[in-house]
Every structure is written in structure tokens, then in C-alpha cells.
Amino acid sequence: MTDAEHLFTPRDFLRRAISRFNQADLVYGHGTTTALDEAAFIILEGLRLPIDQLEPFLDARLLPDERERLAGLIEARVTTRKPAPYLLNKAYVGGVPFFVDERVIVPRSFIGELLRSDALAGGEGSLIADAGAVTSVLDLCTGSGCLAILAAQLFPNARVDAVDLSPAALEVARRNVADFGMEDRVRLFEGDLFTPLKGKRYDFIITNPPYVGEAVMAALPPEFLAEPAMALDGGVDGFDIVRSILDGARAHLAPGGALICEIGEDRDILEAEYPDLPFLWLDTSESAGEVFFLPAEALGLKRPPRAPAGKAPRRSPAAAKGAGAASRSGAPRPRRR
């Protein structure tokens, strides 16, 4: 007899899934960190229930087709070792759902949390004093397009350009842009970093580039091997693409603008190589010192001159009223990329 014939409630499937996952020694890190969380996500998303409300449904009696679906998802997670978001075509960033499949990396950037909080923009003491003053945003290595869409939500007056080298990834991003009704605000470009932008400058540049080093790439578990390698591989030390972004950002940031970039846990490599750059390290609920913020001035771009008396100056999107979100803590974290 199959699991679907023996198990009748979400509680039954939760217990069974945890046992199977532990027995198979699965690896997590695509939105969950434990067998319990992974099982809960599969059950709730598989039943199209709110993913943060397991308790009210634990003892609900499931229909035969629901039991078959959950049994199949649990079996597929064990036998294929694919991340659960691929099996369900759904990933959440800052609580916001996005479509995903094997054409894109499973989105899990710490920047997603920052774009959903007031620490980055719009709040008291935030790094960007006036979210409404940001009119142009660039998302490099956009993948599923999730950060570009979240940026469009955060900056209501901004047009967002999103770039990726993978045409397959852009197909997924195009679907998400359409799902969110953002076609008039988010434009997608295929190409290598800044290449397709023809010298355009932006108030804010966001990027979660590939940053996994050679040694880590060689030892990736099956769950991470299921993702596109080009979305992970950052060269020998992981920073090849980060260096290219730093080298090119000056030519594509507007005066008064800013760059935010996720780089993983090896910030000491970056700080040693760029000792004159005043990296401002931003913490999130699950990370410390893995995302940096750089104002355009740090890259050699001067702020625009003060407007004449009687004319309101354009607010700089990088104007920091405080640095409460910054931290110099460098505690090692599991690689998220």
C-alpha cells in the first residue's frame, strides 16, 4: 500500500515527511533550514493553504486527490533531491510568492528582506531618505525577476531595468513581471551585466550575482546542483562577477545614487582587495555582513550641486539619515547563493 492509502491528515503527512527527509539526509537552504520547515512548506503549498498557518489544518481530513498529491511531492523530494520550490513552482521572498522552475536559481537573497523593510528606504533613519525620489533602478543578474519587482513596489516612481545573461531565466522573469502587472514599470534585458544598457545611469543598482567559489562549486550537494550553474559560479574565489560590477558601477550610477550587492560570507576578501571603498555592511534577520551598500560618492561620483534658492533640490536616493542598519559583524553563515 502507498503512503496516500495510509495517511489521512496533514499531521500524518508531516510526521511521515520528516521521517523520510531525515532518513534520506536531505540538504536544505532554498527557503527552509530544517526537515520540519521543509515538510510544512510542501504540505501547505501543496494544499494551497497559507504557508504560515499550519496548526489550524493539522487534523483536517484530506480528500483522496490531496493525499495523492502530498504523497507524490514527498516522494519526489526524496528521490529527485530537487529543492521543494521547483516541485511546487513557488518561492517566497519577503513573504511575496514568485513562480520558479529549473530555469532560474531559487530566489533567497537577503536583499529581498531589505526591500521589504523600512531600513533601506522610507523609514526613519533609513539609508535612502525618500523612496519617492528614486526614479530609475537597475537589477543585475535578475534571475526570476523577484528583486526587480520588489524594488518597483518599494520605489513607486521608479522604472526598473532588469538584466540577465540567461534567456531562459528571462522567460521566468517575464512571467513574474506579468503576474504582478508590472510590464509598464519593469523592463527585461538579455546580456552580460551592464553591456545592454548603453551607458544609462541609475539612482539605485541592486544585484545578487553569482558568488560561489570554485572549491564550494565542486562539493555542492544535489539540491544545489539542480540549479543553473551559471547562477552560482563566481570563479575561483567567488568574486569574479562582483569585481566586474564594482568596476562598472561608476559608469552607471547617477550622482547621489547607490549600489547594494550580496556577496556571501567572504567579505574579508573584498575588503582586502578594495581597502579604499567604505563598504557599509547591512544585516538581516538571517545574515550578518553579507550585503554591502555603497553610495555613488564612494566610487568617485560627486553629488549634484545644491539647487538655487527657491527651487526644491532633488532628494538623493543615497542620502543616509542614519546607519542603524549597518554592522561590521562578520559571523560566518551558510552560503545562500
Structure at a glance:
This protein is of the alpha/beta class. The chain contains twelve helices and nine strands. The strands form two sheets. A seven-stranded mixed β-sheet has the order 5-4-3-6-7-9-8. A two-stranded antiparallel ribbon has the order 1-2.
The biggest sheet amounts to: 7 strands, mixed
**Record field, number of beta strands:** 9
Distance between the termini: 40 Å
Secondary-structure element series: HHHHHEEHEHEHEEHHHEHEE
CATH topology assignment of the largest domain? Rossmann fold
Description:
By secondary structure, the protein is an alpha/beta fold. It has 2 domains: 3-88, Helicase, Ruva Protein, domain 3 (Orthogonal Bundle), CATH 1.10.8; 104-299, Rossmann fold, CATH 3.40.50. It is built from 12 helices and 9 strands. It has helices spanning 3-6, 10-24, 35-46, 64-80, 84-88, 110-115, 146-154, 167-179, 214-217, 222-225, 240-249, 267-273, and strands at residues 91-93, 96-98, 136-140, 159-164, 186-190, 202-207, 253-262, 280-284, 287-295. It has a 7-stranded mixed beta sheet. A two-stranded antiparallel ribbon has the order 1-2. Helix 7 (146-154) links the parallel strand 3 and strand 4 (159-164). The radius of gyration is 21 Å and the shape is globular.
